[in-house]
UniProtKB/TrEMBL annotation:
Protein's name according to its UniProt entry: Chromosome 16 open reading frame 89
GO molecular function: protein homodimerization activity
InterPro entries assigned: DUF4735 (IPR031751)
Protein origin, superkingdom: Eukaryota
Transcription regulation among keywords: no
Record keywords: Signal
Gene of this entry: C16orf89
Organism: Pelodiscus sinensis
GO CC field: cytosol; membrane
Signal sequence residues: 1-23
Length: 329
């Protein structure tokens, strides 16, 4: 028979080991983020809106993490690191946003509200996806164009015209944003639509069923991520894989924050540049991947890939994801 104090000691050791591994994970994430911030510093004049948006989402997560951070002595140095990072990021994202606002004022105006710090609400309660909600088949590859989804976002955000009303749900938007069987970036844009509506506090009857749609979208996005994982994380699908984690994490699904996924994503960061994008081998010898075209047929209209293989969109999504992991831990 195990004596009671020994049993308590074992529980204590197990718990301290768990919190030690969480503290280690936090340290690794923080240094990856510091590294990515150097990339932002170097490219702040050239980064596109997707990149600025991702670094902004990172800031939101870091502020959220600081608010719920326990005040244990051994965590103080990590806390101080994160505070420094937030300070640095807020001036860098502001400069990057200004510079993007000059180069593409129309597009910038359309999404400006999403770059305000108080726009986003982070989850305080967590759900798990239920695989029975996932689509049995993804039969709508191209549900809608990016122009169509941008228009629907602008109606929700109130940026469709100067001083426009917000939370407008048109018949067309209701149809495409709830269409079933969508996949890839159409699916993540559908979830975005509901996250924007939450953030704006829209009360259209469509959003009274918000959780129902989120359950379906994120169960389907989990199914896609598990397929990407079983295919060995082929390069063209990594961006989508991370976007699914970022958005479903923000929708409150904690099973996207898998430690093994965190480890994998950290290996994709380019150590010299601090960014995410094509690794040098891929950059020099592009692989022949089946479906590569389809996976790359994304929101490429304003994508920016730098000469060193760094991608604005992928780096933005990656830091948004890492911020989510830190907030969840």
């Amino acid at each position: 028979e195990m004596s009671f104090p020994v049993f308590l000691l074992l529980i204590f050791l197990l718990k301290s080991n768990l919190s030690k591994s969480e503290a280690d994970s936090r340290s690794i994430i923080i240094s990856a983020l510091e590294n990515a911030t150097v990339f932002l510093e170097n490219k702040q004049r050239d980064i596109n809106l997707d990149g600025v948006f991702g670094f902004h989402i990172l800031q939101v997560h870091l502020k959220g993490a600081l608010e719920k951070w326990p005040s244990e002595r051994e965590l103080l140095s990590q806390q101080a690191q994160v505070k420094r990072l937030v300070k640095k990021l807020s001036s860098l994202t502001e400069k990057a946003a200004l510079s993007f606002g000059h180069s593409d004022p129309e597009y910038f105006k359309e999404f400006q509200p999403t770059l305000e710090l108080h726009f986003w609400i982070l989850p305080h309660l967590w759900n798990q996806t239920d695989s029975s909600f996932a689509y049995s088949a993804f039969d709508n590859i191209n549900c809608f164009t990016e122009e169509m989804s941008d228009k629907c976002f602008a109606y929700l955000l109130g940026t469709w015209k100067y001083n426009g009303s917000s939370c407008i749900v048109t018949k067309a938007c209701r149809k495409i944003m709830t269409m079933s069987g969508c996949s890839d970036y159409c699916l993540s844009h559908q979830l975005f639509y509901f996250l924007f509506a939450d953030a704006k506090g829209c009360s259209d009857r469509l959003f009274q069923r918000s959780q129902y749609y989120k359950n379906i979208f994120c169960a389907s996005m989990m199914k896609i991520n598990l397929m990407i994982e079983s295919n060995g994380f082929q390069f063209p699908s990594r961006d989508l894989f991370m976007e699914n984690i970022m958005l479903c994490g923000m929708a409150g699904f904690s099973d996207f924050y898998k430690p093994s996924w965190l480890e994998t994503i950290l290996t994709w960061q380019k150590p010299e540049e601090g960014c995410f994008g094509k690794s040098s081998e891929i950059f020099e010898h592009p692989p022949r991947v089946k479906n590569q075209e389809r996976l790359l047929r994304r929101v490429k209209r304003r994508e920016k890939v730098f000469a060193d293989g760094c991608s604005s969109h992928t780096t933005g999504v990656a830091v948004g994801v890492l911020g989510g992991f830190l907030y969840y831990y």
